[in-house]
Amino acid sequence: MCLAVPAEVVSLDLETQTAVVALGQVKKQISIALLESVTVGDFVLVHVGFALNRISPEEAARTLQLMAEAGLLGEEEAA
Predict the structure, then answer these.
(1) Count of CB atoms within 10 A of residue 40's CB?
(2) Rounded to two decimals, what is the model's pTM?
């Protein structure tokens, strides 16, 4: 089963089509090449290092809460 995780974009490098996203204290560089436009502060669904879609902050919070309840995330990542 594949799982995409919501994360917040904290920085962008448009030249290389990459972004740094944060999930709690964890930060990771990902590709944004599959999306037309992304800005700092957006929430994106991340799967295997690629942003697949932008989502609302509310949807990201709901998804992270459900993942935490299912034991897939620690409390820190769900906050």
Answers:
(1) 11
(2) 0.86
Distance CA 29, CA 69 (A): 26
CA-based nearest residue to 63, from 3, 6, 21, 23: 6
**50 closest CA partner among 36, 35, 65:** 35
The reported pLDDT for the residue numbered 79 is: 56
How far apart are the C-alpha atoms of 79 and 4, rounded to whole Å?
A: 17
Domains of the chain by range and CATH? 5-78 (2.30.30.140)
Among candidate residues 50, 47, 34, the one with its CA nearest the CA of residue 4: 47
Three-state secondary-structure class, residue 49: coil
